[in-house]
Automatic annotation (TrEMBL):
Protein name: DENN domain containing 2D
Key words, A-Z: Guanine-nucleotide releasing factor
Stretches for region Disordered: 42-72, 98-174
Encoding gene (name): DENND2D
Tree of life domain: Eukaryota
Protein source organism: Podarcis muralis (Wall lizard)
């Protein structure tokens, strides 16, 4: 077979060939009844001994879509139509306006940590009638990487109910997972099935986010690599799906997976089994995984979860390497008002890191709308969505994106560090004085910031301080009733600021869904959660008291 470029130009004719397919191995950590999932494109009837489910991916040029999940015996359950697959992708990606009423978690900033926050936590009547419980990662949800814990907690939640309710619960969980599994391969290869066998390929790490109908989110952590061997080979993707946003921790796990893959696929499974049998570390804690590697003996792998949970899921370094602080502030301003934002980059790793970092700038608020760090080719029409979205698209699809009828969108080119399209008022959204303070606090790549942790802290402090100064007085404007229910006084809240520009900004910000979700949670809990934002808020109030006394 003649050598083909691994990424043809968009629109190039694709020649059907069974050699040009992809392989993805997926561990769906949050689910109870399935351990791991092998996505085997070339042989849909072949089941790995340790696999509980097999998916089939057809070669490019074949009009048929991905096959439906096969049972462990290799029995087909039927195939979904292509249009149905696109609707599924759109739903799992959150391509619609989510319902309000969700709870915001202090430990889940930026809409991507700790099971996700997001809107619409209340289940619909239809879902309640089918007996489903709350979202994974909640008090009765799943453990981040232990299927058995998930099963036990689900059974406990419905132990007092009728047998039919329990069956409905498990059936609902299975249906939800199967819908999830149908979409995962396309998110593992968002750049399409356009790969030829390769002899060299630098591994890359990226992630995607799937949104459930209740607004909760799951994160897929992916490592794409070229397996060891002779001659031209096809790349593989290893993916771990979890309801927790711990990017550094899961990246280390994928490092271990990649190291073992270069030896043999069989070496990966004992490591993942040991991982599932270990408790997920609490913030600041470490777990040790024992794993045997041929010719190396038993290794002890330490996995540490950062103590500061609001930064454990993000790295700002990638964003500041691509964009100047001034442009990052304009992106932040657009995100605060819940506008439509599209990020463009060549590499998947850069794209996903930057969009996660941009969403994390909103802490302590949560992006509650369409959020797709890497948009699959089948979902490029997302940019036509009339509701707010924050999406990442590979730059090779730029021409197709610009042909779409986009309105009031901020188009960010991460490769060149500029904007290809603006609304026009991005520099006027934030109060001028606070903008200047933030710019003086934000680092640049010429500041010789030594570590990513140091940069993360400096960036986070600058944006948290912005929210402390603009909305930090919100507790004083919640009137509490005798029943313990709070009532937010929006008018007095906006008038409390002395600066006209700050009041102008606040009047717009209070109309956003992210602020509504934040206040709804505050109205339900008189005692604030002692998270990082509350800590900074208390420090700021103490400083104001000291200035008044001096």
């Amino acid at each position: 077979m003649p050598r083909r470029d691994k990424r043809p130009v968009s629109g190039q004719q694709k020649t059907p060939t069974s050699a040009r397919v992809n392989v993805a191995l997926v561990w769906t950590a949050p689910f109870a009844y399935r351990k791991d999932v092998a996505v085997q494109p070339t042989n849909p009837g072949r089941v790995h001994p340790t696999s509980a489910q097999v998916l089939s991916m057809r070669p490019p040029g074949d009009a048929a879509p991905l096959a439906a999940p096969l049972s462990s015996a290799g029995e087909r359950r039927g195939a979904a139509s292509l249009s149905a697959r696109h609707r599924l992708l759109a739903r799992l990606s959150g391509v619609r306006r989510l319902r309000s009423g969700g709870a915001k978690s202090e430990s889940a900033p930026g809409g991507i940590g700790g099971g996700g926050g997001g809107a619409g936590q209340k289940l619909s009547a239809r879902r309640r009638s089918r007996g489903r419980t709350g979202r994974p990662g909640s008090a009765r949800g799943c453990a981040p990487w232990r299927g058995k814990a998930s099963c036990a907690s689900s059974e406990t939640a419905c132990a007092g109910g009728r047998p039919g309710e329990r069956e409905n619960l498990m059936r609902g969980q299975r249906e939800e997972e199967e819908r999830l599994l149908q979409a995962i391969p396309l998110f593992c290869f968002p750049d399409g099935n356009e790969w030829a066998p390769l002899t060299e390929f630098n591994s890359e790490t990226f992630s995607f986010v799937l949104t459930n109908v209740d607004g909760s989110r799951k994160i897929g952590y992916c490592r794409r690599l070229l397996p060891s061997g002779r001659g031209a080979r096809l790349p593989e993707v290893y993916c771990i799906v979890s309801c927790l946003g711990c990017f550094g921790l899961f990246s280390k796990i994928l490092d271990e997976v990649e190291k073992r893959r270069q030896i043999s696929t069989a070496v990966i499974y004992p490591f993942m089994q040991g991982l599932r049998e270990s408790p997920f570390p609490a913030p600041g804690k470490t777990v040790t995984i024992k794993s045997f590697i041929p010719d190396s003996g038993t290794e002890h792998i330490e996995l540490t979860r950062p103590l500061d949970s609001h930064l454990e899921h993000v790295e700002f370094q990638a964003l500041f390497q691509c964009l100047s602080p001034e442009k990052i502030l304009q992106i932040f301003a657009s995100a605060v008002l819940e506008r439509r934002i599209v990020f463009l980059a060549e590499e998947l790793s850069s794209l996903s890191k930057c969009i996660h970092a941009a969403a994390a700038l909103l802490y302590p608020f949560t992006w509650a709308h369409t959020y797709i760090p890497v948009v699959p080719e089948q979902l490029l029409s997302t940019v036509c969505c009339p509701t707010p979205f924050m999406v990442g698209i590979q730059k090779r699809y730029l021409d197709e994106v610009q042909e779409q009828p986009m309105e009031e969108v901020l188009l960010v080119d991460l490769c060149k560090g500029n904007f290809l399209k603006l609304v026009g008022d991005e520099e006027e959204i934030l109060p001028a004085k606070l903008q200047s303070e933030m710019l003086s606090s934000l680092p640049t790549m010429n500041n010789n910031v030594q570590t990513s942790e140091e940069l993360n802290t400096r960036v986070s402090d600058a944006f948290v301080q912005f929210f402390v100064k603009t909305i930090g007085h919100y507790p004083a404007h919640i009137k509490w009733g005798k029943n313990g229910q709070g009532s937010f006084q929006e008018r007095s809240f906006c008038k409390a600021l002395t600066s006209k520009t700050s009041r102008k900004f606040l009047k717009k910000f209070v109309k956003t869904q992210m602020f509504s979700l934040f206040i709804q949670e505050a109205e339900r809990n008189k005692k604030s959660v002692e998270g990082y934002f509350q800590k900074r808020l208390n420090e700021y109030e103490e400083q104001k008291k000291q200035r008044r006394l001096s």
